[in-house]
Structure formats: structure tokens, C-alpha cells
Amino acid sequence: MPSINPTSRFLLLGEPPSLDLVNTRVRQNGSIVDLLDTPAALDTWLHTQAKRLSWVGPVSAADWRAVRALRTSIAELFRARREHERPAAAAVASVSQALSAPSARMRLVWTGREPRLAPISARSQRSALLGELAADAVAVLTGPQAGRLRKCANPDCLLPFVARNPRRHWCSSTLCGNRARVARHYRLHHEAE
Questions:
Q1: Which residues contact 78 (CB under 8 A, 6 or more apart)?
Q2: Is residue 190 scored above 80 in pLDDT?
Q3: 23-43, pLDDT tens digit by residue?
């Protein structure tokens, strides 16, 4: 179940990781805001996903650019699936490329007479992360959740979600759902006057 954390930079978490990634682009005051606007922001997001995604160490600018590029492709695939359209070929190619990345997180190093476990290179770690996110997106797109992929009913909201309950229309009942209820209440009580 998605959770709302008003003290966090990332308000809606708990969807599949690939959806949580797509949900790092939001609309605020009529403008689209990228919550992953710096490598440090990606580092913070990865910490929120620590139980679901493997990542060790600081995020580099190259990591940040690669994750944001994959996010764009995944968002396009989710949009196309929801709207029953064919996605851009570049988005399919981008996710397919990420899926082909090696997924190893550690490597064996033999120094002298003793073996030890060592982290893989930063580039390999980035490839593994992109592969995890791409695999998660493909699982959403091709699995039982695919038919429940929705966009928030609030026209000012960009956030997609998996509607585990068929009556769910909002990214969050406490965010957009509450706004809709307040607006409806206002209209009903002020139009009657």
C-alpha cells in the first residue's frame, strides 16, 4: 500500500519501485517539478528504496543522468500501456538495454593468498540498478498489475499507480482524493447559496 510522508521530499512511496521512480516527477502549482534534480536527491530516493533496491555508496552525476533517462523511458511505457497505445521505440529500446545489464553487486577478489568480497565498479553497479528498475517496470507492464495501472484522476497530478482496489481513482486519498472531496463540498455548499 502506498504511503504518504508529508515530511519527505518524495510524497508518495510504496508502489512498485519503477512507479515510485516515475512518481519523482510531480506537478506543483501548475508546473512540472523534478524531485530528482540533483545526484543528492537520487541518493535520498535510493535510501527510501533501500529495502527494495540495492545500492552502495554515493551517487555520481553519471548515475543520476542514467536513472533519470530510464525514468523517462519507463514513464512512456506506463503511459502507453494505460492508453492502449504503442510506446516510442526509443523507450522500449532503453528499457530492453537496461534489462540486458549484468546484475552482480559484488565480485570476488583474490589478493595474495586470500579471497575477499569487493564491490563491483560504479558503472557495473549503475547498470545493475537500471536493470532492477527496468525488470520491475516490465513486471508491472506484463504481470497481473498491468490492467490496474492508472493515472491519478486529478488533472493537475501526473502520478501513476497500481489500483489494487478497482474503486481507487487517486494517487493518494489523503493528497488528491482529499482535494477533490474538499472541492466537491465547496461546490455543493456554495452553488446552493
A1: 19, 22, 137, 140, 141, 149, 160
A2: no
A3: 999 988 889 999 999 999 999
Query: Residue 155 pLDDT more than 70?
Result: yes
Cβ neighbours of residue 113 closer than 8 Å, sequence gap 6 or more: none
Between the two ends of the chain, the Cα-to-Cα distance in Å is 40
For residue 128, what are the CA distances in angstroms to 115, 141, 144, 159, 172? 23, 20, 25, 25, 30
Q: β-pairing, 31-34 with 106-111?
A: unpaired
- Nearest CA to 88 out of 100, 98, 101, 74 is that of 74
CA distance 60 to 25: 20
What global pTM score does this model have?
0.80
53: phi > 0 → left, psi -120 to 50 → alpha, else beta; which? beta
**Euclidean distance between CA atoms 27 and 152, whole angstroms:** 12
- 3-class DSSP assignment, residue 53: coil
What single-letter amino acid sits at 85?
A: E
Q: What are phi and psi of 133, to 5 degrees?
A: -65, -40
Quick check: 102 and 123 in contact, CB under 8 A?
A: no
Mean pLDDT, residues 102-127 = 69
Residue 167 CB-half CA count within 13 A:
1
Q: Is 113 within 8 Å of 61 (Cβ atoms)?
A: no
